[in-house]
Amino acid sequence: MSSEPVVDVRDPAVLDDPMRGYDRVLAEAPVCWARLPDGGEGWLVTGSAEVRAVLSDPAVRNDPTGLPGQGAQTQEEAFLALGTPPEHLPYLRASLLSLDGAEHTRLRRSISHAFGASRVATLRPRVQEIVDELLDGLGSETVNLLDEYAYPLAMAVVCELVGVPEADWADWWRWGKVLVEGDPARITPTLGEMFAYCHALVDRRRAEPAGDLLSEVVAQDDLTDVDAVALVVFLVLAGHETMAHMLSNAALALMRDPAQRELLRAEPELWPAAVRELVRTDGPVQLARLRYAAADLEVGGVKISAGDPVQVVLGAANRDPAQFAHPHAADVRWQAEHGGREGSVGFGWGPHFCLGVALAKVEAEVALRSLVDRFPAVRPVTEPAWVPLPRGRHRVALEVRLR
Ligand code: HEM
User: Fold this and answer.
1) CA 164 → CA 98, 235, 299, 393, distances in Å?
2) From 40, 70, 139, 374, which residue has the greatest number of CB atoms within 10 Å?
C-alpha cells in the first residue's frame, strides 16, 4: 500500500500536544497511512479497539524477516543501515520485543516467575524503604523530582532485582539517556559499552551466584550468554526509563488535581486504581514497538497488506472517546469501578504485554502515595517542557516546591 501520508508522527503539532494532535487523527481515521518516527511510511493505528486487535493478532509480527513488501528488509538489514556494527546484531535480535511466537515465549518464560504478583508483593517493603530514604534526602525546598526521586527509585528497584551493582547505576543512567535521545552516532558506542558490561556481569554471576535474577538466568541451561545479556539490557532499560517518566507524569497530574488527591487521602484503597488511571491518561510509552502484518489483514475496515509496517499509538487509544466516557480526565473512582478491565493499553496488550506491570504498579503506588502524604503542598514551579519524542511522553525535568 502507499498513498500520501495523512499524518507525520514527528510533526511539531503532534509532538507539542500529542493528545490533541492524536485526537484529530483519531477522529478522522483510527487507521491511516502515516510517516513514522524513522522517516519511513506505514499504518498508524490510534483507535482503542483497533490497537487491541493489532496487538493481539497472531498475524502481526515484531520481526519482519521473510515478509513481503517493506518487511522484506530484515531486522538485521534495518539495523545495519543505521550503522549498527554486525557484532551487536545477535543481542538486538534476542531482545524480547524483537521476537515472536515460540522464541518469544521461551525467553519470556525464563524470567516471568520473577514478575508474578505474589513474588513482587514481597518486594514492597524494600520499595518503601528506598522511597523513604529518597524522600528523606530531598533536602532543599525546590527539587527536580524526575532526577532526584523518580530516576533513582526506578533505577534502584530494577537493578537490585536483576543484580546490577550500585557502583554501576550511574553508567546505566547515562546509557539510558543516550538511547532515548536517539542520536545514532552515540547509540553505537553506548550499545557496545552496555553489551561488554553485561557480558562481564554474566561471567561474574556464573562464577559467583548472588541470589538475584541474573544468577537464576545464568543457571538455566537452555539460555545462552547472548540471551542473558539481552535480558539484562532490556530489563534494566525498560524497568527504569519508562518507570521514571511514569512517576514524573503521574506526580504532576496529581499535583494539578486537588480533587483526586483529596479522594485518595480519604480513600487510600483507591491507590491501585489511581495508578492504572494515571498510566491510561498520561502513560510514558506513546508508541508501541513497530509491528508488521504477516498476512493480509483488515483492521477497522482498512485493508493492510502482508509486509506493511503497523505502528500503534497507545497514548491515543487510551483516550479514545469510543472507549472511554471521560477520555482526557483521570477519574480514579471510575477506574476503580472498572477494576482494570476497561481496555486501556498503557502497559501494552497481547503477548508482549508489559512483563513488569505488577512491579510498576507497586513502585508507583508506594512512590506517589508517600510523596503526597509526606509533602501535601508539593507543586510544580514551572510548566515542565516535553522532550520532543514521538515514542515517549517524557518531561525534560519536573521542578517542584515541596512545602
Ligand atoms: C509504569 C511503567 C511502565 C510502563 C508504562 C510500561 C509499558 C510497557 C509497554 C507499553 C510494553 C509493550 C511494548 C510493546 O508491545 O511494543 C512493555 C513491555 C515490557 N515491559 Fe514494561 N512498562 C513499565 C514498567 C516496566 C518495568 C518496571 C519493567 C521491568 C522491570 C518492565 C518490563 C517490560 C518487559 C520485559 C516488556 C517486554 C515484554 C515482552 O516483549 O514480552 N516494564 N512495557
Assistant:
1) 23, 11, 42, 27
2) 70
